[in-house]
Structures are given as structure tokens and as C-alpha cells.
Amino acid sequence: MIGTRPWLLSAPALVLFLVMLVTPLIMTAVLSFNSFDFYGGIKPTFGLGNYADVLSDSYFYEIFGRTFMIALVTTVIAALIGTPQAYFMLRMHPFWRSVMILVVLGPLLISVVVRTLGWAILLGNNGVINEALRRFDMIERPIKMMYTSGGIVLALVHVMVPFMILAVWAALQRQDPATEKAAESLGAGPFTVFRRIVLPQAMPGILSGSLIVFSLSASAFATPAILGGRRVKVASTTVYDEFLNTLNWPLGAAIAIILLVAVLAIMVAWNRLVEKRFAGVFQ
Amino acid sequence: MIRNGLFAKLFSIVFAVFMLAPLVVVIGVSFTPEGFLEFPPSGISLRWFRAILDNPDFIEAAIMSVQLGVASATIATVICIPAALAIGSGRFAGRDALQALFLSPLTVPTVVLGIAFLRFLSMMGLNGTFWGLVFCHVVIIVPFVLRLVLASVTGLDPSIARAATSLGASDWTVFRRITLPAIIPGVVGGWVLAFITSFDELTVTVFIVNPATTTLPVKLFSHITQTTDPLVASVSTVAILFTVALMLIVDRIYGLDRLLIGEGSR
User: What's domain B56-226's architecture?
Assistant: First the structure.
């Protein structure tokens, strides 16, 4: 009775996950080994042809390179903004802190499509930013921000920075504010206190936040699809095109599996690195 | 408590502007009297809000999103409560693997989940059906519900349930009278977070809808990628107001930071 009870309680969720998650993922992996031709559709053959196609084509290298570069830059910027912001929030007056919590967490609950629409209005050639700069005679020609990797990074930072703040916030909650006071009483300036006292204690949060932000950015879809379109393609928008426009499902599945494996490999490697480098921090 | 200096205050103000700017322009643009996106609007007009009523597509998509969110959040909550009780109250062989499986949809890139569901549903002949969508959404939102319910289950005192059992209460009575009332904040919080996640979901849903089951985010997405008129802004504004209202209610009864950060963060 004792042995089977947890399994009975978990059975509904377990069955659902086996049917609706494990089976579809296996079917997708199988699909990526099938072949495709434009007249006959998907052929139930079994081979590495799609992977060979992707890995031998510089076009796909460019797409994966861009995907991971965007994710990396987004992660670094989110850490640079999110870490000090989480620290400042901890020291705010309770009223302003609860206002900032709404400002940080509220956008998380609003659809990414809506938020990205806002960035499209801001970044367009006739958008809010370019119009404002032109009105003050700071530029003659609009700065191109739509359909660039830079625009995608900017909007992704906006989507991702709350996750970084949440992670750093959780880490800083565990620190003892007396350590800061001690450093201050010994003559350390605010920047020294931040760098020598706060930052080391925030490190576990920054590292786990970076992992979340990187993996979400590498697989983000709505933001690159709206702000990059067909001109600045990333892995997820390429998969979308293969599935819903070109209809070459096996090739799309192979690209998706490569993305999945790459993201998982980077996450495992990052965890290893963090555990080795910062073993002391997590104790 | 050490207070923030001038730099910290300026940094926070600039950051708040950055976070709110895209939402402010969407709301601003939706009040334009013109036929194109302009900010700041040259006047105040409700023209594009009236236009929503002339486009029943958007209203149908919004109703579909609400139905989908309610159905999938409810199913996810119902299956997560027993699973969380099993995982949260004691060790057993395979427990860590089970928990890892239930949280795994967070790690798999959503686009991969999207095509996996598309492949599966089209082979089953369920592609584009409402219940096909519901069960895909359940898989995506289970991690969110499980984490919140698990957080409140781990705070339970097992001796209370044992006392009830020793007094002759059946397992079901213990669950109904003792356990459920104790974990109800986590359950409600989990349901709301699941509903919002389902309501906003795009990347997976875009692969598995058909014109009859299009959700609001998918409708907005396809509209934005084809044309840009202020209609998308007015629909988005209504969606923002709906979310903000929901958010304020949740913040009152449960606490927004607890919902998104987890138990015990206060």
C-alpha cells in the first residue's frame, strides 16, 4: 500500500505526460529521420539526410549562430540591468518596492505578442523613437531598428529581465543586511559594498537567472517573428517556416531537435561549470 | 535599513520607463482617430474600440482563449493536487524522476513542443480541435501549478492528518476537511497562474490551431504580421486592462510576488 500510493496519486498526471509529451517528442525525433519530397510528402524512410542537410549548409550555421548570439547578448544585458535593479528594490521604501514589483512582474502576465507590438511601434522607421529624435534634429535619416538583431535583443531584454530580477531577488533575500553595514562602517563606499559584499552573495541568483534567460531567449519565437520577420531569421522562426510554409516537416523537425539538443547541452555544461567554479557559494 | 542613493533612484526610474514604455505606446496608439499607428495620438477617439465590435473574429478568439484557459487550468489543477501530495509528502523510489518529468516542459524549447504536438495531433486526427488544444495546454501549464501546490504541500504538518485518521476519518475526509483547506492558497494561485499562462500562450498554440479554434494571441500575431492598423492596439489595450484587473485581484488575495516567486519569500 505504502509503495504504490504515491504512484496512484501521480497516475493521472503521469499518463497524461506519457501520452501528450513523451510520445509526441519521440514521434518528432522519428520524423526528423524521415525524408520529404515536394510531390509525395513525408516518406517513412530512416536516415540522417536532414541532419546532413542542416549541418552542411552555411545558411543554417548563420541562423544558429545568430540565435545563440542574440541569446548570449540578451543574457549579459539582462544580468547587467537586473542585478543592480534587484539590489535597489531590496533597499527601497516598502511602498515604492511594491510599486516596482508590479512594474517588474506585471509585464510577465501580459502576452508577449502585445509587448512586442509595443516595441514594433517604438522601433519602426517612422516609430516613436525615430520621430522623437528627428523632432529634436538629432538625426537626419531614421536609425534602422526594426528587422535587426539589435531590435530583437532590446525587446527580448524587456521580456527576460523580470526572470533575472526574480532569481537575483531570491538570492539576495537570504543575505544578511548586517554584512553591508559592517563594510560601510569600515569605510567602504557604496560601489565597493556592491562589488565586494552584495555581488558575491547575488552570484547564485545571477547564474541561475542567466540559465533561464539564455534558454528562453534561444527558443523565443514571438519577438524574433514580429521584429525580425523573414529578414532576420532565428532557429524557432525557421522551424515555423518549414512547418507551416514550406511544409518540409522532416527538415523542420531536424532543426528543432538540433535546437533542443544544443540548448540542453549548453544548460548541462553551464551547470557543471557553475558547480565547479562556485562550489562554495551554494553551501 | 540602508536607503538608496541618487544613482539608485535614477536607475530605477529609467528602468521603470523601459519596462512600461511598450505598454504605454500600445495603449496610447489605440486612442488615435487616424487610420494608422501614431504616437502620441493626434486626438482622442474611441474609433478603434468600436472597430473591435465590427470584427467578431477578435471577440470569438478572445472567448476561445478564455474557454481554453479555464478548461486547461482546471484540468491541470485537478491532476496536480494528488501528484503534489505524492511528491511533497515523503520519499519514494522514482520521486525525483517523476518531479523532473512534470517540470520538463519548462526546459524543452516551446517551438519543439509546438511541432511535437502538431505531429501527434495530426496523426491522431485531432489537430485544431478544442480538446486537442486543451490537453496540449495542460502539459505546458502543469509545471506552474505543480510548483505552487508543491510549495504549500511541503508546509503541511503531517501530524494533523495522522490525528484525523486516528479518530476514524477516511482518506477522502482527511483530504477534504484537513489537507485541501490548508493548501487552498497554493491551489488558487496555481490555477490563476495557469490560466494566465494558457491565455497568453502563442508559440505552441500557433502550430495547433485552425481557423475555428484560433486564440486571441494567435489572432493578434497573424494580424500584426500581415497588416498594421490601430485595431491590434485597441484589442491589445483591452487585453492589458483585463490582465491588470486580474493581477490586482490576485495581488489582493494572494500576493503577486508569492505567485511568481514562490512561498516564503516575504
Answer: Orthogonal Bundle (1.10)
